[in-house]
Amino acid sequence: MNTHVKTELAPIPFIDVAAQRARLGTRIDDAVTRVLNHCRFVNGPEVAELESRLAAFAGARHAIACSSGTDALAMILMAWGVKPGDAVFCPSFTFCATAEVVPWVGATPVFVDVLADTFNMDPASLEAAIEVAKRKGLTPKVVIPVDLFGQPADLDAIEAIAKANGLKVLCDTAQGFGATWNGKRTGSFGDATATSFFPAKPLGCFGDGGAVFTDDDDLVPVLKSVREHGQGVDKYQNVRIGMTGRLDTIQAAILLEKLAIFEDEVAARQKVAERYNAALADVCIVPAVDPRATSVWAQYTIRVPQGGRDALGPALQKEGVPTAVYYRLPMHMQPAYEQYPSAGNGLPVCEKLAGEVISLPMHAYLDEATQDRVIAAVRRALGG
């Protein structure tokens, strides 16, 4: 009698927050308990401590914790007084939050194409977008380069273009916090930087959270005022339009514990990416990192040309390997944003990437046996 029973392998987590939770163990419990005991749930001491440690980690003079990465972007635009008639330049191949905040202040997002290898803003397309904005009677004000999937945009080129055109640089490192450009960490570039601590990010809390980084001493009190309903000398004097943008003390306490192991986790992510690249380069287009940069690998995103992407996801799902597509529709093609201007006649690289990209499981706790299972499934599906 045949006693062999076919057993199905358990599904692989796309991002394994539980493994990190297990590693931190009672450190998270103790941190939260301290907040529960002192009961300063808003603007508690952990918030100021986190801001100090984040600034030191990033190499920035100031860090201002806030309620989300989206609010971080909005706070900066509000603090700078960006207004109707102003143009803000955003890559089209990104999450909607980058451009979403621009109409909040009445300004116009102008969409920019990206580079096919790094997925980040194309400096030549930025220059073309600036000319489009001028022709439309808009005033070029801000460029928002995005550190997509974990690696910084070409800050050398973008900062030079911004300087030549009088633009402020707002770095969106929601996916790239902890990465480096020319040896300096994200958060230390441009006029200000926004990041996110959404749970799926490389450095994530247990809810929503974010931060702003800047070296501009004069900007800090304005940002803090915006974060607290536009308050002046106290919360009952309102000197500008603001928002409720605070980071909860419990989330700050959690982030302090996670920040302590963050560098180790980034190194682990790099090892996973290196193994993926080595094993998959002959069956798909693996992600490229600019030699001036390092990545925190917020996503590990491959490209499958000739229409093969859409079949890959279901094939891997059958083997318990989850995937995700970031992003199926570029911003300039989204119904809510298609009326806004773009550089040139369409953004061909964004549109091409949207039909080819697919992301594989990536986190710091992906052991080699699980990596090999992902690799084998991808190779089978792509005929490698």
From TrEMBL:
Active site location: K201
InterPro entries: DegT/StrS_aminotransferase, PyrdxlP-dep_Trfase, PyrdxlP-dep_Trfase_major, PyrdxlP-dep_Trfase_small
Range of residues in the leader sequence: none
Keyword DNA repair carried by entry: no
Single annotated GO MF: transaminase activity
Keywords carried by this UniProt record: Aminotransferase, Pyridoxal phosphate, Transferase
CDD domains in UniProt: AHBA_syn (cd00616)
Residues that bear N6-(pyridoxal phosphate)lysine: K201
Biological process according to GO: polysaccharide biosynthetic process
Listed Pfam families: DegT_DnrJ_EryC1 (PF01041)
PANTHER family named in the record: TRANSAMINASE (PTHR30244), UDP-2-ACETAMIDO-2-DEOXY-3-OXO-D-GLUCURONATE AMINOTRANSFERASE (PTHR30244:SF42)
This protein's name: DegT/DnrJ/EryC1/StrS aminotransferase family protein
